């Protein structure tokens, strides 16, 4: 199996106006691709991908409209807001303002092997157990909210824990 990369994503990260800061490119991760970036406002439609997408909003609030084959009502998403999108599903998005985000793409085969079932579409704020894991995966922009290593659950066999220090900075 080869390393996951931009070709395994929905295409959001390849848009003009998306400025990557750090990615997992070059780390050899076969089932996980992670990117931190600054996103400028946009409206676009994306084809489904073979990976499940988790987006963590690092700042905000920002107005976001999402849907499949059309946009839904606008939502005001606060810092720390989560969005999960299942593999092989189209996605329409309108981002109403600039935003710093973390995108985590997990191959569907890894998720199915770990969870034992297929992920179904869930919206912002319905991260389930992933909510407990994300503070352990990324360094918070708010020092008082940093998770201690002892409070972090085990990520499971298919997910590798990573820290900001392990992700290479994108060279421009």
Describe the model.
With 172 residues, the chain is mainly β. It has a single domain (6-140), classed as Jelly Rolls (Sandwich). The protein has two helices and nine strands; from the N terminus they run βββββββββαα. It has helices at 108-115, 130-137; strands at 18-23, 32-39, 42-46, 51-57, 62-67, 75-77, 82-85, 91-95, 99-107. The chain has a five-stranded antiparallel β-sheet. Strands 3-8-5-6 form a four-stranded antiparallel β-sheet, with no helix packed on it. Strand 1 and strand 2 form a beta hairpin. It starts with 17 loop residues before the first strand and ends in a 35-residue tail after the last helix.
